[in-house]
Design goal:
By secondary structure, the chain is mostly helical. It has 18 helices and six strands. The chain is globular, with a radius of gyration of 26 Å. It starts with a helix and ends with a strand. This is Major facilitator superfamily (MFS) profile domain-containing protein.
Length: 533
């Protein structure tokens, strides 16, 4: 009971903090709309991850001649489209002054693309692979609404609420990545043939079922953005107006000047973190098969368990970020909890074993095929000559590095997004959030290509050494701009020389205020203000 009473006090305290900006009813409406954006973030990441494990067998079933090389284009189409369209969606939202139209349009595009993905068997086999490429491209384009969502989250939360809201947004994103493969596994019993519908013209199988799940969730999400459920409540501008004593939102934007070096530094940091996170996504299974001589089945099972454990750690980390920011400065948390853990994680992956890994040759593989023996395992020395002399990674290294990454990455991306929105201030952030999202997409496009090339041609030592240096240099740079990663300075409204109190601005910045309400912010701009009634 005491716990419930404490939670009730916390909720009342939360309402009190914004009581001069909104009514209790408006607060409920605002947070309902924020939670709708959480669901949208979950849906967008689910749409990407739900087909990852099934997209290759689906493509191979539709067109056996497509090949794995074309699969790379299909996978890359999603982040490429998101990178291109994100700034455009952000600009659109800024231009019309509303996020509803871009969000409904993007979710509708997601739903239509998912329908097409589920009906690919109706297209001619000669062109079906290009239709699959198009569906993945448009799903990626629809997920560009993430920039609009982040922009709205910045405007619909106060500075005090921002960190917790961004943490929940990141948590929804991670849940989408976790649930996607789980849903694909759940529908696997349908098999390749599945259930014939409409006289066998289309089939509900383990590949198309995931697309129909996206269609259902997309339709629900479209309804969530209707006026009866989603109402835009930009409280951030009201908060800034109160602090500045400005009459309009435009005056508020003019009264804040963001630090562009800080914003571009955070965009670069977001790119570097995402680039390094893609490393294990891209090389996970080939790496463990080469280093530990695992079979394909062992690699899939063991990496699945490892990624599941990492996801659980990430969930706990996301939940801990909000209380951590109450005890530590967000910038310190970014440097030491985000970047330093990622740097140490990369260093721990540089092999320190005593001997090279088990190797396999083309001759051994041919003998296995001819004699129908068990799968030949090991590092392919013919394609990767470094297998013969580079020390092998140990299991301790793999687990330690992945553990540190599972903690450092969630902290890093969450705090970067929080600081980014705070530095930009109360102005419309659509285009800037589009640039931030686009940098993450660019890392997902370039990362697999660059890292795969370095790994195959230069080996494990070079791969993890280069990524370690990349992370370390970025960490040093963030230390250099540390003092600039703060909320923008507010220009105080000049006070007219008049004896008529009614003509004074509502909020005046003063040096000392006794018996007056004080509006202090956590970011260091703790100026005392007196509100004149």
């Amino acid at each position: 009971m005491e716990w419930l009473r404490n939670k009730r006090r916390q909720r009342r305290a939360g309402v009190y903090k914004t009581a001069d900006l909104e009514s209790i009813s408006e607060r409920r409406t605002r947070w309902r709309s924020v939670r709708v954006t959480y669901f949208t973030m979950f849906l967008m990441t689910l749409g990407f991850s739900i087909v990852l494990t099934g997209i290759w067998p689906y493509l191979d079933t539709l067109d056996p001649d497509a090949g794995k090389s074309f699969l790379g284009f299909v996978v890359a189409a999603n982040p490429l489209a998101q990178m291109i369209v994100s700034p455009l969606f952000g600009y659109w939202a800024n231009k019309i002054g509303s996020v509803r139209a871009p969000l409904i349009t993007s979710v509708a595009l997601f739903t239509i693309s998912s329908v097409t993905y589920s009906l690919l068997e109706l297209f001619p086999s000669s062109t079906v692979k290009y239709w699959m490429l198009a569906t993945r491209f448009f799903v990626g384009a629809s997920s560009a609404n993430i920039a609009v969502i982040r922009s709205y989250l910045s405007s619909a939360t106060t500075v005090r609420e921002r960190t917790g809201a961004v943490s929940m947004m990141s948590l929804a994103q991670v849940l989408g990545f976790i649930c996607g493969p789980a849903i694909q596994t759940a529908v696997a019993p349908l098999g390749d043939e599945g259930i014939g519908l409409f006289g066998g013209k289309i089939h509900l199988n383990m590949y198309t079922a995931t697309g129909w799940v996206n269609v259902l969730l997309g339709a629900i999400n479209c309804l969530c953005f209707m006026p009866f459920c989603f109402t835009e409540m930009p409280i951030s501008a009201k908060e800034a107006q109160r602090r500045q004593g400005a009459a309009t939102a435009e005056e508020t934007w003019l009264g804040t000047k963001p630090d562009y070096m800080a914003t571009w530094s955070l965009i670069l940091a977001f790119f570097i973190l995402s680039f390094n996170f893609v490393l294990l996504e891209t090389l996970g299974q080939p790496l463990v098969m080469d280093q530990f001589a695992w079979t394909k089945e062992q690699a899939v099972m063991n990496m699945g368990l490892l990624m599941t454990a990492g996801a659980v750690i990430a969930l706990v980390t996301f939940a801990a970020i909000k209380p951590l920011t109450k005890k530590f400065d967000e910038r310190c948390l970014l440097l030491w909890g985000g970047f330093m853990l990622m740097v140490v994680g990369r260093i721990s992956h540089i092999p320190w074993g005593d001997a090279p890994p088990v190797v396999k040759t083309k001759e051994m593989v041919m003998n296995q095929l001819n004699s129908n023996l068990t799968e030949v395992v090991g590092c392919p020395v013919d394609e990767q000559p470094w297998c013969a002399f580079t020390p092998a990674m140990t299991m301790t290294q793999l687990l330690l590095g992945y553990f540190l990454t599972s903690i450092g990455y969630p902290i890093g991306i969450t705090v970067i997004q929080t600081l980014f929105s705070k530095i930009l201030g109360p102005r419309p952030q659509g285009v800037w959030q589009g640039l931030l999202t686009g940098s993450g997409c660019l890392s997902r496009v370039l990362g697999p290509i660059f890292l795969s090339y370095v790994y195959v041609n230069l080996g494990v030592v070079w791969t993890f050494s280069l990524t370690t240096v990349m992370m370390a240099v970025c960490c040093v740079w963030m230390g250099l701009v540390y003092k600039r990663l703060t909320f923008p300075q507010l220009m105080s409204t000049p006070v007219p020389l008049t004896s008529d109190v009614s003509k004074l601005p509502r909020t005046i910045v003063i040096g000392k205020a006794s018996g007056a309400s004080r509006a202090n912010t956590k970011d260091g701009n703790n100026e005392e203000r007196q509100t004149l009634q």
